[in-house]
Structures are given as structure tokens and as C-alpha cells.
């Protein structure tokens, strides 16, 4: 599958390091959520928008049965299996995203080189000058977010300059006005 076909299919991954979950999406549809291990505080998993740049079958050792390398600057980071399944659900790695071997084996053939990977930290992150930043989670709607934070829907739309409020996506940062 070419990068153009990947983009047309809308295949993408969202990793939430706080929840320690990897979400596999096909367009706006959540295909599956997997538990993962992420970087420990001393070597956190870098947040941001990346892509899968290589894939290796049976890399061996601590990498488990599959490796998907990411284009994260300054290191050799990836999504991979593990020889230590007890680590899943913990912040324990040197920055990589670990999965159970049977989970990475399920995901591996569905992810192609060029697949977008967004890594976020937490459900709500920082306060900005105009309010609190909230990271959209799978299943969220703008209306639900407005109710959760007790703000008018129109204020959310205006503060975030949303042209189409029906098109929010997991991993998107939304400013919650004060």
C-alpha cells in the first residue's frame, strides 16, 4: 500500500502515554485499543506526530516478535513486542512503545510504512492564556466536551475556530475557554 493509499484509507495510530493505550483507527472508526508500556519518567516516550518508517519481523531479544520504527528525531524509537509481558501497562521502557507479542502480531500486517502515529500525554494537558487544553479522546464529541467542562458549545467552537464542529479527532488539542 502506498503512502497515498494509506492516507486515503485513513489508517492511523494514536498512543496515549498517560492511559498507556494504543488506538488503531481506520478513518474515524476505532478498530481496536491495545494496552501498552511506555517510557519511564527518566526516558519518556516523545509526544508528537510521527510516521512508521520501517518494519522488521522477528527482531529478537527484548523487542519481541515485531518492530515498527518511528521517525522520532534524536533516537531509535518504535512500537514493538516484548520479551517481558509483565511490563505492559507500565511506564518502564527507554521511550519505545511495547505491546504484547500477540497484539503486535495482529496489528503489524495492518500498518504500512508511512502510517501516521500521534503520541499524546494525558486527557488534559496544560493551561494556556485563554483556558485549559484538552486532548480529544476516542468517542468524544464536542457537545460531550462542552457538557463535561460546563461551557457553552458556541464558546468551544468560537475559541477553537472550528469550521466544522462535527470533525474533531482523537489526539486533537481543544482549548476549553475560562
TrEMBL record:
Transmembrane segments: none annotated. GO terms for molecular function: glycosyltransferase activity; peptidoglycan L,D-transpeptidase activity. Residues 11-120 form the L,D-TPase catalytic domain. It comes from the Bacteria. One of its GO terms (biological process) is regulation of cell shape. The active site is at residues 80, 96. Residues 132-176 form the LysM domain. Keywords: Cell shape, Cell wall biogenesis/degradation, Glycosyltransferase, Hydrolase, Peptidoglycan synthesis, Transferase. It holds the Pfam family LysM. The keyword Hydrolase applies. Gene3D superfamilies: L,D-transpeptidase catalytic domain-like, LysM domain. Pathway: Cell wall biogenesis; peptidoglycan biosynthesis. The keyword S-adenosyl-L-methionine does not apply. GO terms for cellular component: extracellular region. Belongs to the YkuD family. This is LysM domain-containing protein.
